[in-house]
Amino acid sequence: MKAKYLSIYDEITEKIKNKEYKPRTILPSENDLMNKYSVSRDTIRKALTLLEQNGYIQKIKGKGSLVLEVNKFDFPVSGIVSFKELADKMGLKCETIVEKLQVVKADKLLIKNLNLSSKEEAWQVIRVREIDGERVILDKDFINKKYVASLTEEICKNSIYEYIENELGLQISFAKKEITVEEVTEEDTRYLDLENHHMIVVVRNYVYLNDASLFQYTESRHRTDKFRFVDFARRNS
After folding, report:
1. Residue of 132, 5, 155, 13 lying closest to 141 (CA atoms)
2. Domain with CATH 3.40.1410.10 in the chain
């Protein structure tokens, strides 16, 4: 039997999708929802927390739960797709802003996540993705300099993957991904239009070439109300 808070979550989700609870309006109070569903405050809070984590509401201290616009862009979980490829496919009005492009020496993060030695170097690329005038994705890329000797701002604004495959002749083969929901950082606040959001979806990518060499570690930080992460799965009998 489904937990009560999940049933409440499903019902409120449908009402948000059907515009019964309109974007930019406040949901009924916790007390009103407790009375409506005849449940405890803890049950209501579990449902509201799940709604917030999935980008349907934003809790605002002293005001309540703000209903968010749920028109989300589908972001594929499986497959390796550059932002440029995704934007072209979906016909999005996008701009990439290169905030930082530099060579850095391997620190503890890169030794761990990019398998570098302390003497090796990597490109650090920080880019903001703007969709319809809103800064909604922060991409932090680290690329092993052994495989990509040079990078320019123009390449980073266009497509690093396109450059690697078409100009350098390297074949990008597979990636391992981790997806988490985390609290926003000062860096997120500095680079993104967060509109009072205090949670963010973080996708960490470990990307490999066709010889199984790990060449890129990426941390891609997405505003929760703008993206839906999708996948296709088939059960093998």
Report:
1. 155
2. 73-230
Residue appearing with tokens 């993060």: 109
CB burial of 159-169 (b: ≥16 within 10 Å; e: otherwise) equals bbbebbeeeee
Cα–Cα distances (Å) from 65 to 24, 29, 222, in that order, read 10, 8, 21
Cα gap 95→158, rounded to integer Å: 9
Under DSSP, the state recorded for 68 is P
Residues spanned by CATH 1.10.10.10 within the chain? Answer: 4-67
CATH number for 73-230 (one of 3.40.1410.10, 3.40.50.300, 1.20.1050.80, 3.40.470.10): it is 3.40.1410.10
Question: Mean pLDDT of successive 10-residue segments in the chain (237 residues)?
Answer: 89 90 92 95 94 84 84 67 72 88 96 95 96 91 97 95 95 93 94 88 94 95 80 63
The answer, as to whether pTM is greater than 0.85, is: no
**3-class DSSP state of 228:** strand
Q: Tokens representing 147?
A: 């495989």
The CATH number of 4-67 is 1.10.10.10
For 8, 18, 41, 48, the CA distances from 11, given in Å and listed in that order, are 5, 11, 17, 12
Q: How many CB atoms lie within 10 A of CB 189?
A: 12
Burial of 80 (0-12, 13-18, 19+ CB in 10 A): middle
DSSP conformational letter for 85 = H
